[in-house]
Amino acid sequence: MKENKKPAAVAAVALTVIMAIAAATSCTSKKNDSKAEQDTTAAPSTAASTAATSASTAGSAAETQGFSALQLQTMAPLSIEAYSVKEYTMETFTLQQITFDIPSYEVREQTIPKLHTKLQGIEGCTIDDETGAVTLDSAVLFGFDSAELSEDGKTSMKNFLDAYVEAVFTDGTKDEISKIIIEGHTDTTGTHEYNQTLSENRANNVKSYCLQIHPELNNYLEAKGYSSDFPVMKADGSVDSEASRRVVFRIQT
Length: 253
What we know:
Elements: H1 6-64, H2 69-75, H3 92-99, H4 105-118, E1 125-127, E2 134-137, H5 138-141, H6 151-168, E3 179-185, H7 192-213, E4 221-225, H8 241-244, E5 246-252
Helix pairs in contact: 4-6, 6-7
């Protein structure tokens, strides 16, 4: 009787196939591991590239707002949102340089001493010795949460404006001044939208009253409301609500 070798041959073929499949699976697994490792290695590079692109975009956005190259270097780690003036990442005066036009040196040199002389004794009035901006306390001009000038506010505004015009519109400076911006500012109480309307209405009402007294200023005066975007801060970093409620006269050249 002959020995049947067919089952043994089939088993050998089956074993060979199984070994081949195992080897292929192992190879595929190694390739996948290698690809994953490459992807992991590449990820930081891609992230770095994205960060660099974002930083470049942030830098471009900041440059359009007037930051110097040195300021950009110091702010490089910040996000794009941090370049907004509302984040207060810079000193107050620097923010004013970015946000507001400052009069020329010649105009400031001539008007600031005169403002101190002429406005002496005007209630609720302060002068910025760096910019020549004059701040009026809203409590002197308006009732609480009101945009209408009170009777006392009108009297105070007339006294202020008469003296202000004498100090600012002199022979040496009147031809250099292009605008006088009347800014309305509120504290941080309430919504931004409500405060925006209140600040705009206050600035516009002050402008309208000023033109009743001095109509010759029609081509100079412009009213703007800034809501609670620029609060006055106390030494401890908290908001000074009373000082934040103000009207500012700012010269532009």
